[in-house]
Structure formats: C-alpha cells, structure tokens
Amino acid sequence: MVQPSLRWLRLAAGNLLLVLAVLVFAKAFFPYKPFLQGLAQHADYHDNGETPAPAQFEKVVFMLVDALRSDFVFGEHSGFEYTQSLIRSGVAIPFTAHATSPTITMPKIKALTTGSIPGFLDLILNFAESDTTSTLATQDNWLAQIKQSGRKLIMFGDDTWLKLFPGIFERTDGTVSFFVSDFTEVDNNVTRHVAPELKQLDWDTMILHYLGLDHIGHKTGPRSQHMIPKQREMDGIVKQVYQAMETEEHLKDTLFVLVGDHGMNDGGGHGGSSSGETSAALVFMSPKLRALESAYTAPAVPKDEFTYYRRIEQSDVAPTLTTLLGLPIPKNNLGLFIQDFLPLWDVDDQVKILNTNGRELSRLISASYSDFDRLLGEGKCNGKAGQLDKLACIWHSAVLSSKPLEQMKLFSTFSSECQDILTSAATNYDTDSMLIAIIIGSVALALFTTTWAVDGVPGLTLYKLLFWALSLSYSGMMIASSYVEEEQQYWYWAASGWGIILLIRELQRGESGAKSIIILLLLRLTRRWNQTGQKHAGAPDITNSFLTQHPTFLWTLVFFAYTDMFFRLKRNLETKHSAFVGPVMSISPVVASMLFKLSMAALDTRELIPAYLMDLADGFAGVSVVTQAQLVFSIILLIGTYLVLVRNSGMDGTKISAIKKLQPFHDLLTIFIATQSRLTNIPLIWFFNVMLLLLDDMKFDSLLQIILTIITMQHVSFFALGNSNAISSVDLSNAYNGVSGFNVGVVGILTFLSNWAGPVLWTSGGVGLMCSWMGREKRKKEQANLKKDDGDDNTTLSSSSSPEGTLTDTYLKFAEVMSTFRAVAMVAVMGACMVLRMHLFVWTVFSPKYLFAMAWTVVHHLVVDLGLAAVVHYMGR
Question: What are residue 570's DSSP bridge partners?
C-alpha cells in the first residue's frame, strides 16, 4: 500500500501531465496556417505594364448581418420584402454563399475579407473577446487594399472588426458581439450612424455589422416570434441605403453588399457543418447592375433545403469585390471571381480578369508545391497524368490560345482546379509534438493505473471489469466519425445497461426492484427529452413536439420541480435550534429563480407561457432581468455564506455530519443550475434529483459502484439537456444571466455551467452518495467494535483513525478512478485525431470533439470533479 503522501503526489503529477498533454496536442493540432506576407500590387499579376481591368465602382457599403441564413432573405416566409423586390427588378444579384466549418464569426470575416480559409484555431480565438493575436494587420485583404489606395473606411457594429483590422478605420463604434441577451440596442447602436454617414462625403467604404438576428437565434431559435420583425428591421436598413444610392450624387458609383457570415441550425446555434449553418445569404446591389439584365424570381424555391440561386464559396467574395473596385486581389485568396459580373467589362478585360485570378492562385500553388514552377518553366504540356502536370498544361494552353472565349474557359478551369487543390490541402500538422503529447498522456494514464495494480480499488471484480469495459469501449468509439457524432447513443445504452444491473442487484437482495424500474423509466423519458447529435437533430422530441405545444403542462412540471427544490432546501436547512431558518431561507431563492425564468420567457419565448400567466409574466418582466438574475445569485451566495460561517462551523451550537453539511449546498446548486438552464430543461433537473434519491436508497456496497453511476450519468445528462459534440450545440442563451456588460471571465464561467449543468449536478449528487456510503461504512465499523469484548481500547477501529475508509482515503480513491477514466478517454481522442488528421471530417467531427474533450478534462474533471470533491473532503474533516 502506497503512503497517502505519495498517493497525493501521484495524483497531482498525473493530472499535471494530462493537462500538459492536452495543451501540447492542441498547439500541434490547431496551428496557424502560413500565409504570404505583404499586400498584392497590380504589377504582381500583369506583365510589361499591362493595365488591369477598370473599376466599376468607387465606393462600397458592406452590410454583414450575423447568422443571415439564406432562407431568411430568399425564402417565402422572409421579412426581406424590399430586398426581394430589388432582386426581381434586376438591380440585385443574389447567391447562396457556402461558409466552410467552423461557422463562427471571426473565421468567416477572415474568409470574406482575405479570400482564404482560416484555420480551426480561429474558432477558439473567436471566443477570446480580448484576444489580439488573430489580427489581419499583416495579411492581405480587401480592406487593406482600399486603405493602400488612399481611400477611407468607417465601421459600425461587431468589434471583431476592430481586433482584426487595427488602425484601419477613420471612424468606428464597436459593439460586443457575445452579449446575446440584447436583441435591440446592439443593432440600434449601428443604425443610428447610418443616416448621418450616408450624407457624409469623406468615406469610401462603410462596414455595418448587425448582431441582433444572431442573438435571437441563440436565445430562441430561427422560428422565434422575434425573427421576422428583426428581418424586417434589417430590410429597412437595406431600403434606406439603397434609396440613398439612388438619390445622393456622391453615392451613384457605390456597390452595396448584403451578406451573412454564416447561417444557423434548427436550434439557433452555429459552428458546425450542417446545411443551415453553412448556407449564408449574399446579395450585390446597385442600379448599375441592371445592365447585366439578370432575371430572378423572389421569393425563390431552393434547390435543396437552403441553396437558393447559385451556390458560391464565401472566399469568392474577396476577388470579386476587389476586381469590381479596381484593386489587386489579396495575396492569400483562394476564391474565384464570380463570373456573373463579367458582362460589366468588354471581352479583353474579361480575359484579363480571369487571367489575373489564375495568376494569383498559381502563386499559391507554387508556394505549396515547388515542382509547379518547374512544370510551368517547361512551357509545354508533357503528357503526364499528374495533378500538377495537368494544371500546368491547362495554363500553357490558356496562354498560347488566341481565342478570347477559349482563353476565358481555360483560365476559369485552371482557377477552379487550383481552388480544389488548395482548399483540400491538409493542414501542416506538427506530428512530432502530437506524438509527444500522446506519450505524455500515456505516462499520466500509467500513473493512474498503478492505483489499480499497487493499491487496489475496493469492490467486486465484476464492477472493476465493468469500469474497464466502459472506459475501453468508449475510447475505442473515438476512431469512428459516426460514433463521435452520435455519442449520446453510447451513453444512453450504457445507462440502460447499468440500470438493469442495479435491478438484478435489487432482486438478488430480496427487494421488489421498484427503485431500479423507476430509474429505467426516467432514463427512457430523459433520452427522449431533447434530440441531439447529427443524424436525428431536429427530429420530434418531448421538448419541441409536446412541451412547446402544451405550455400549461410545461409550467406544471416546472412548478413541481421548484416545489421539490423548496422542500429539499427547507428540510436540509432546519436545525434543532431553529425551525424557522429552513422555511425563510428556502422560499426566497426558489421564488426568485422561478419568477426570473417567467420574466425571461415573457421576453424571449412568450409562446411557452399560458394565457393565465401572461399578465403576471409581463408584470415581472418590467423589472430588469439582469437585476432579477443578480438577486437570485445574491440570495444563493448569502445562504451559502451562512452555511459556511455559521451553521457548518458550529457557531449556532449544532454539530453536523459531513452529509448534512453537503446536502444544502447541493440544493442551492440545483436552484442555480435551474436558473442557468433552458426553461424546458428544468423538469429534467427534477428527474435527476429523483434518481439521486432512489440511488441513495439503494445503499451501494462499494465506492466503485457510485463512481460508475457518476461517470455514466454525467454523460447522459450532458446529452439529455441538448448538447452534442458539435460546436453549434453550445448554448449561449443563459451565459449572460445577471451580466450587465461583457466580462470574458464571468461569461465564460456561466457558459460552462449552462452547458455542463447536468454533469455538475451529478458530480455534486455523486459526492453526496459517497458521503452516505461513508456514513454507512462508519456505522458498520462502530457496530463491529461494540461486539469486541477484549477491553483493549487500542484495537478499536474507527473511520477517523484507520487510513482505509476515511474521508481522505475515499476522496483519493474517487480522484484516482475518475482520473483513470478521463486519461483513457483523452489519450483515445488524441490518438484518433492524429490517426485521422487527413480524414474528410477532421474539421467537422474530430476537431470539435477534441475541444469538447479539452473542456471535459481541463475544466470539468479538474475543477468540478476533483475540485468539488476536495471541498467536500475539507468540509467533512
């Protein structure tokens, strides 16, 4: 048996190595993509002083509406009626712009402005509101080209632009993009500048970035009652700008671009690769475009769910915009000039444009493949079948051709082939560092595994085998993309299997099995509450198909859930010295939390409020929801302070066991988690606590049984609340409760607690199960000691003196077993990401999974699992 001090050292060293492995692998797996430095010049693409194609526009208004999905503008149920009228009249050219994953604002702005495809690391930087490492100050883009030409730019809206383009704008008014509770002020702050700026003569480019539509999606989804009014508001801005272009002389040569950075899925989220998330609206508008004689219908019928009109790549915007403005194409552009605009020039200039686009892409091919310069230098087709040989042959044929139409076709083919090669090229992974990280993680796993071989884990061999079967089967699942996408199915199956084992255990003990049967029924209900994953996302479930249609039933469940919270907290706060403490302290956080959820529903999801509650909801919604949330958190904090400083310290004369100290904290945590959860998920919180009561009544025989329950139900609850391994499932709707302004630390904590609410609750409840188990073990030993009749006090065994079975020993066993599981899972994810780094779905499946695994390991495991258990260990001493 290893001494406790060495066990503490082993536990600390193993977890530090595991975190080190996670960070080293992340740095190697998510590198910045290299790019060509400096700004492009016309001379780079034109030989012997050849003049470029002339500009068609002098100014540009670039209006980006965050999360502007294609159907929001082009569909039958769109609020963009004026925009659709422009499309029908031929002065607006519409497209569906394909946004590659990750569909997050910062990387999509990079794609729209540089024409490149940003790395996946930009997804992480997107959430770092104060980050400045993601700047485009040294990377070519059309804003820098405009600035270089001596023109002036102004920007109003999402302050992401200020981080990406420091010092490039003459006037700005930035707004924080992540404050998703705000639907109106964040847009009004932009709109108030539009009318006065349209009168000004001192700017050449105006960028407007509206955020309200995206915030509505995050909070209430794409079918929200707020969505159509917001679309009409944005359409009103389009009308205001376009009419100014028609009437103001200084705006007659202005190009107006309406674009979305990405779309959203049926839940209102984005970040993944579903059709709704990758399909953004794009419209070019100007009276001069009537010369193209384009004929479009609007609203339109999509070719598939979200493809309206012609589908282009988002990176195509950069070369098209710069060419229309008579500027050089950015150096790192992977996009193609949109050929719908070619008729604006004569045939000779059309050839120049396609030639220029091809030359720019050929420079990137040469930078990536050194053989390509040699093939171009041969000056002829060599007849070989290699990809680069064919590409060089197409270029030679285009250059040598004397027929403009043939040249245009060949240059276009060349550019398309270049784009395919460059966009499909693998990231330059640091495989050596990835391998080192896996080795470090394996060393950490080996350290944790020694607790099984050297110290031994108490419990029947069956449960030890079950632990390793669970750990190894879960880790093996990481190698398949479909299993990662539908991970929830694994945990639902595992929980059902564990429930059956508990049922058999009950029957063997001569019990009725009722508790296990109820748990199995609740598990069945839980898995149908929210459809998640990829394959069945958006399919009918209890939340969308029943609760939203029966708000009275929903609020009945919510009322019962909060009533249960009240009685639990009341019972656990009462002491023999004061029967009034429990009721007085218990009612305040419960009522405050429930009224806050009612007020939020009145503001965001009024369809979930029955008619008889509407007046009450509107009355309380008149009070700031920020203040209401702060009140809930303050009450919980005050009660927690009372528990720590007065009740649990014994100042009121009460001696309390470890489990009695813990229970009210779990009850307060339940109220906090309910406050941080979607309204429709609050009944699930109630079901989880019912399961915990039933499990506690089963009187587990060993610590390992409890740990198996915790691991399984942590993951079940994570997915049951609507989460998945897709970035788009990250719920920001409660990340700003009680926050009056953006604070990256506070918002980050609230975001984690909102999305990991279920696992946090099960960790807390699991620690309670352990305390109950320790209490039973202590009583067993005391009863055994009473039977001893040798009169030797020194032979008396107690949980306070024996290292085995003490609170310290229990915590160490818990921490060691939990660390073992997390190390197995983390090493498996790292291994899968390395082996499958060339996989087609590496950015849409495995990269997001790695980010979630990082959160499970670094935040949930270290802070919640080990941290919460450590606090309980300290409290119970």
Answer: none
For residue 63, count other CB atoms closer than 10 A to its CB.
Answer: 23
Alpha-carbon span 649 to 874, nearest angstrom: 12
- Give the residue carrying structure tokens 């818990």: 814
Residues in the chain: 877
Average pLDDT, the chain: 85
Is the preceding omega at residue 610 within 30 degrees of 0, hence cis? no
Write down the CATH number for the domain with range 58-127+139-335.
3.40.720.10
Alpha-carbon distance of 490 to 715, in angstroms, equals 10
For residues 209 and 161, the answer to whether their CB atoms sit within 8 Å is yes
234 vs 191: CA distance, rounded Å? 10
Specify the pairing of strand 205-210 against strand 59-65: parallel
The two structure tokens encoding residue 805 = 């079975």
**How many CB atoms sit inside 10 A of residue 604's CB?**
22
What letter represents residue 421's amino acid?
A: I
The residue assigned the tokens 């794009």 is 282
Strand locations in 586-637 (E): none
Instruction: Please report the sign of the dihedral spanned by the C-alpha atoms of residue 795, residue 796, residue 800, residue 803.
Output: positive
Please tell me whether residue 555 adopts helix, strand or coil conformation.
helix
Residue 227 contacts by C-beta under 8 Å, 6 or more apart in sequence?
Answer: 72, 79, 213, 216, 217, 220
- The Cα diameter of the chain in Å comes to 113
pTM for this prediction: 0.79
With 0-12 / 13-18 / 19 or more C-beta atoms within 10 angstroms meaning exposed / middle / buried, residue 3 is exposed
C-alpha closest to that of 61 among 335, 343, 342, 321:
321
- Asked if residue 88 lies in contact with residue 300, where contact means CB atoms within 8 angstroms, the answer is no
All structural domains of the chain with their residue ranges? 4-16+429-875, 58-127+139-335, 345-426
- Asked if 557 contacts 686 with a C-beta cutoff of 8 angstroms, the reply is yes
What digits encode the pLDDT tens for the residues 202-248? 999 999 999 989 888 887 788 888 899 999 999 999 999 999 999 99
Q: Are 626 and 738 in contact (CB under 8 A)?
A: yes
The span from the first CA to the last CA of the chain, in angstroms, equals: 23
